[in-house]
Structures are given as C-alpha cells and as structure tokens.
Amino acid sequence: MDILRGKKRSSSIFRVVEYFLTFLVIISLNFALPRMMPGEPFLHYSGEVDELVAFYSKEQIQYYHEYYGLDRPLHEQYFSYLKDLAEGDLGFSYYYKENVRTIILRRLPWTMFLVISAMGLSIIAGIILGSYSAWHRGKWQDSVLYTALVVFSEIPAFLVGLALLIWLGAGLGLFPLAGAATHFANYDSIWDKIADMLHHAALPVLTLTLSRTGGIYLLVRNSLGTVLAKDYMLTARAKGLKELRIRYVYALRNALMPLCTRIAIQLGALIGGAILAENVFSYPGIGVLMRSAVVVRDYPLIQGIFLVLAVGVMVANMLADLAYKYIDPRTRPAVIGSREMEEF
Amino acid sequence: MSSCNGYDLLLEVNNLAVHYQTSENFLPALNKISFSMNSGDNLGILGESGSGKTTLAMALMGLIDPPHRVYGSVRVAGKELMALAEKEKKKLRWKTIAMVFQNSLDVLNPVMKVGQQIVEPLKEAENLLEREASLEAERLLELVGLEKYWKDAYPHQLSGGMMQRVLLAMAISCRPRLLILDEPTSSLDPVTRKNLFEMIHNLQEKLGFSMLVISHDLSAVQDLTDKMIVLYAGEILEMGLTREITEEPAHTYTRGLINSSVQAFPYKDLWGIPGEAQIGVRGCTFASRCTQVLAICREKKPPLEQVLANRKIACHRGGIVDLLKATDISKSFKLRNTVIPAVKGVTLRVRHGETVALVGRSGSGKSTLAHILAGFLPPDRGEVVFDNRKVKSNWPACKEGGIQLILQDPFSALSHRFTVEDALLEPLHVNKFGSLEERMIRIKTALKDVQLPTDDEFLKRYCSSLSGGQRQRIAIARALVMKPKLLLADEITSMLDVSTQANLLRLLKGLQNSSGFAMVFITHDLQLARKISERIIVLHNGEIVEEGSASYVMEESSCCHARELMEAGFL
C-alpha cells in the first residue's frame, strides 16, 4: 500500500511539473509570436482599423518604441514581460490605450457564452443522436444518421456560418446580421433584454453546435457500441433489470466516460471555431478583438488574448483529468482491506 | 420450494435448437437437445469449449435474440419460455432462474459498487429502500463468506476468488429456484476451488435451489452434481448419473474427456482426444474422432437411447463396444499327478479402445490367462468371445483386426536368424495378405509407427544385432502389421531399462490414442498399471480379487491383497 501511495504522489507531482512546463512554453510562444509578425505596431497608432488617419514620422515611432520599451534587447523585454505577468499585469494596449485585462474581461463573457452554449448543445445533441444510432446499430436509421453526420462534420464551420447568415439572416430575415444586442435599445424588462441577446447569439451558437455535434456523435456511437458488447450488459439483462436501468446505468454511464476527456481536448478546436464564427457574425467577443489586435500589431493585447485562451484550454484539460478520476472508479487503487486480499 | 414431495418438474427442455446467424449462414450451436430437471436435482453439463454449453445457459434464460434463432421448447417451472413476451421473461429471470456467470472482470459493471450490483435485481423486484437494500447486500456478502464492507468495493478491487463469491451472492439475491453455474471453477486455485464447492453445498442446504453446472472441468461436475449430460458439438452424447459415468463412461467421447482430465485421476498420463469437433455434419458429430466408427455413423445421426438403467447415450454401436468377453475361465496344468490350478473362474471384459491392466505377482496366472484370451491355449472351462465370435484355436491372431500378443522376452520372441524384414513379413506371408508391394508398404508404416528406420539397410539387419528396446519395438511392429483391435502385452517392458520402458510405453499409448486398439497390459508393476490404464484387474492365485476403474482400485480398494500389492508397489 505504501508503495502504491508513494507512486501515486510522485505521479501527481510529475503532473504538476508537466502543467507548469506547458504553461512556460505557452507564455514564451505568446511573447515570441507577435514579434515574429512582419509589420510595425505604431503605424496605425490612433484611427480606425483599416483606415489610416495619420502616419507618424520616424522620430515619433522611435519615441513610442522607447516609451513602451520596444527598443530594449529581446531578453530584457522577455523578462520584464514575465515579471509583469507574475504580478498579474497583462500590459497596456498600444491601440486602445487601456489596460489589456480590462479589455479582455469586457469581451470574454460574450465568447464564453458562445462556447459554453455551443458545447452544451452539441453534447446533448451528440449523446442523443449517438445513442440512438448505437441502439439501432445495423439498421437503416443508423446508416442514415451516420452518413449525414459524417458528411456534415466535414464542412468547415465558417462555411456553415456563412450559409446560415445568408439564408436565415439575410434571406429570410429571421435573425440579426451582426452584433450581440440591438444598439441603443430600451428594454421593457430584463427578459426582453435576454430575449434580444439570445436572438443575436442564435446563429453563431447554431453554427458552432452544428460543427461540433458530428465529433461527439461519432464518439458516443462508437463508445456505446463497444459497451453494448461487454459481458456486463448481458449480466444486466440476465438479472431481469428494467430497460431504462440497463440503458442508462449500465450502457450510457460506461460509454460517456471517454467523452469527458474528449470534450476538454475538443475545447481548443471549439475556441478556434468561435473566433471564426464571431468574425462571420461580427459578434463582439474575443475573436473579433483578436482580429483587430493582430491587424494593428497590438503586442500586449495579442499576448493577453493568447494567454487567456491557452490557459483556458489548459485548465479545461486539468479539470477533465480530475473529473475522470472522479467518475471512473478504476483509476482509484484498491483501498479496502489489503489484508483480506491475500486470504483468497 | 413449492412442492411438498420435492419432486416436481422444474425445467423441461424439448428439442431445443439454437442457430447463430453469421454473415453467410446459420451456424447450429445446439441441435435438438432434450432433458429435464426436477426440483432438487443437481445436473452437470460437461463438454469441451465450443460444445454449446454457454449457448444452452443463454437459451434457458431467454437471452438469445434475433437474428439468432431458437427452436423447440423450454418450460421453466411450468411456464413455456418461448411463448413469453420480453417483459414476462424479465419477471422470470433472476427470480426463478439465476446465473453465476463465468468469472471475468467484465462481467460486472465497472463503475458500480459490488454491493449495489448484488441487490439491484432484488431492489427492483421488491421496491426496497436504499437502506434495506444495503443491509441485504451485507447479509448476502456474509452468506458467501465476505466481510460486509466489501459492498463498497468496485469490481476491479476484488481478487478472482472474491469475485466468484460476489457473483454467487448476486445470483442468490432473489432466492432463485434454479441456479446456473457457468464454469464456476475457471481460473481458481485448488484451495479456493475446494472452499467454493463447500460453500455452494452449504448455500444449497440453506436456500434449497437446484443447480445446473456448466463446465469443462470434470471435478466441478463431479463435486457439485449427481446427474450429468455430456455435450458435444451441440448434441447430447451421454447422460446419466455422475458417479456412474465417471466410473464407467459408455461413450467413446466421454471416455476421451475423462482421460484428458487431470482431476479424474491425478497420477495417470493425459491423453487428449485427437482431432477437432465438427459442427453441422450429417451423421454422428463425433464420427470424425471416434475410433470405433462404422459407415452408418457418418450417414445417420444416432438417437439418444437407454443403454443401462440410468444411462442414455447417442451411439449407433450402443456406446463403447465390448471387444472381448471371457466368462468363467478355468485352466489347470498337470504335473505328474498333481493338478495345479492356474486360472480359476475368471470373468472379464475388455471394451473397445480401453487399456486394462492385469496385475498380479508372478505365478498368479496372468500369462496363462493372456494365452487363453488370445486363443493359443484352450481353457478347461468357460469361453472367450471376441468381437461376437467364440475364440477357438487361434483364429483371432490370424486375421486383420484380431488379437495380437506381444511377449515379455523380445530375444526369444524373434528368431535371431530372421532379418527385420523377415520377422515383420512373416505374419503377412503366413496369412497370405495382399501382394508383396502391399506387404512392404505395410511393414514400413508399422516401422515408422514404432519410430524405427525404414531403409533397406535396416530391413536387412538380423534381429540378433538389435538392442532389447529395438527388438521389443520390432515385436510391437510385428503385432501392428495385422492391425489388431486388441493387443495383449505380456510384461513387455520388464526386461528393458527404465528409459527404454518409458519411451516404449508412451509410444504404445500414442499409437493406441490414434488408432484406437484396446490393450490388455499384463504387469506386476502397479505403478506402471495406474500410469497407463483405465481399468485395473488384480489377479491372485488365478482368481480376480479386485476390479475397477484405475482410480477406484488405487484409492478406494478395500481388498487386502490389492492393498498389500499396492504397498509393495509404493516401496
């Protein structure tokens, strides 16, 4: 037992080190990537994106470089970046003239709203369709559903988004074409406000959900297919248990375990999808912000956004690891009575 | 228990057939089997893997779904299972028939505590509260000898023996009337196995269920049941009382199975049944591996018929045939005026393909008896019948498929002026068998069988130039060229060193296993007898003093002479 416990401790220490190293690599890349982009951050200083109001002289650019410390050697910049990060300071946006943290915090809820609702909806749809397929394995219902979802999941998310925008938004006029809420609207109640926001979010969420459902459907279908062939399914039937119990406590409960890690892994792709979808629907989340930040080479803002997204994915993975330990008892060692074990 | 006389029909299976749907066609896994069980019966189903044992269990619980097909009738406690809707079957499962599944990690839900899994069906059936269910789980665990805190363990935290107990506790949770045990002993060590048997017996006493034990393990069937069925390729080949069948199997297949079981008799050599099972053949399913097969066996399926009071078998030949029957044989020799009785009223039989050891001290009449059996010596009284024909003079020795005698002393048995070729060809010449080429082919096959060279150089060697072991093998080959059905081996290894003896005996048993001749092995060495024979006959002063299966004679014999011999043999 002691050996087991010791092994367990060392493996969780290893896990922490692993996460720490990953984090270090991420922030270093964060620092390097914007600086590897061609272009000059102070070319677009002030003025709207894409329309240049003023050009600065060489002296002025030089001045701003000195002001923001861009003239110093790279390693010095790197260490001061690390130092600021350690203090929780994400820097000051060159373009918006505001604290990066404030900007991101303002935009983040919109993106999180998209990502979380799309994730929830696609998980629900994927589980329902996947289990339907698995229960009807070998019948026409399964083949139809399988073909449809495989074909559908191959279409890129932004194409689906554009199609929805043109058809449901522009064509039928059912949904607004841009934004997260009606500008300058006066709402009668909080419910009206929520309804308006949902109306705006509908198309981007639908786009993301559609693009994610296929993967979850396939996973559930395969995983449930494997579980249905297991001996314990036969045991459950032999025990004369109720059909619902067999389906949910035995089949689905076992089949959904791999889904847990899979969702965390897919989160990265989902965020990528959200960035594209936001730009298609001009939804004021992190994705749109990131695009503008890249266009104007706003180094601190780019770094800040990347960091938030990367840390988000990492935390999701970590949570998935922990959750898996909780839901799968097989990851726990034999804890009861090692003495009795020897007897039999 | 519903009946007061304890004798009501619990399970009645009639012409049950299961065909599995594969991608191309239907594969018959069970072929029209019928049997029944009364309340209180313990029935064993013995068979090799793939014989349809587990399919039978699944069919009895109504767990075989389309596209697979089930035909025939299964009546459980008076209800026709085939006619029930799935919902009705659910009511029957676990409450009337429950099953102890074959032990494997996958047989329990890996994410559910074992305690919950044990009482789950009971909880559903009787709407127990969480607390009541938990208490019942503890009670059931204690009933199978596990501490109650194991209810909170997950399946992967249990050892193999504990898992088996949990499966048992789960099976009895609803107090079923019939308990099916599927390979209850697989992967258990002997001690755990023994404990398990004891516990099952105890539980049965307390709860009064009937048992259907499905196993390839003879010891499980022997220990847990009093009636048994031998299943082969989806058909019943033999059926009767467990004790009687294991003591004296009537079907060649059953005998083969018992000979392959270590548990049947731990000291004996193991001989598996050669060949592979064939499914869906027109004739007898075992025909391809049977050594007493006739043409009809490949044409027509034998029906299951009563052959003894408590025995039914499916065999066109009525089971293992009696090859040789000797009734009341007596023989005495006259020496001047004294009459010396050598054999006194011996009655014995030798069945097809079996090895009977004739054991006794020197002077007990063994060799005289052997000569009488072969027809070389006429008995004073009694008669010998071989293959349904009376033995008179030495006709069985002169024909193919007859009796051949191999003698103790290879040096005097083979004339030293003969070459190997002469010695082997002699019986064929004498009996005018075939052409010269055919004779040559036959002696070369026989030489190959006894693992001697077949080149001309060896064939032209004189017997005098061969070693004892080689000579004895030539003597065996000489017997084999006549393709005997019965081989009388009279102390054939007593003049050989141990290593040669061991090689020769393995050779002989191997040949017997593949070509199926019966053997009477005459020896004074009890150790040797139990190593190679199924039955042992102990001869003392010309009389049979003990007779029975090798395990019976060795372990349970009460006769003082056999004991004496045995003690001597063990020295």
Describe the structure.
The complex is a heterodimer of chains A (344) and B (571). Chain A contains 13 helices and no strands. Chain A has helices spanning 2-36, 58-67, 74-86, 100-135, 140-153, 157-171, 190-228, 231-238, 243-255, 257-280, 286-295, 299-327, 338-343. Chain A is globular and about 85 Å long. Chain B has 571 residues and is α/β, with parallel strands linked by helices. Chain B folds into three domains: 1-96 and 176-272, P-loop containing nucleotide triphosphate hydrolases (Rossmann fold); 109-174, no CATH class; 322-570, P-loop containing nucleotide triphosphate hydrolases (Rossmann fold), CATH 3.40.50. In chain B, strands 6-7-8-3-9-10-12-11 form an eight-stranded mixed β-sheet, sandwiched between helices. Chain B has a six-stranded mixed β-sheet with strand order 18-19-20-15-21-22, sandwiched between helices. In chain B, 47% of the residues are buried. The interface between A and B is medium-sized, with 30 and 39 residues.
Give the beta-strand count of chain B.
22
Tally of DSSP helical segments of chain A = 13
Q: How many beta-strand runs of chain A?
A: 0
Give the distance, in angstroms, between the N- and C-terminal Cα atoms of chain B.
54 Å
Quick one: overall form of chain B? elongated
State the major sheet of chain B: 8 strands, mixed
Q: How many separate structural domains of chain B?
A: 3
Low-confidence stretches of chain B: 1-6
State the CATH topology of the largest domain in chain B. Rossmann fold
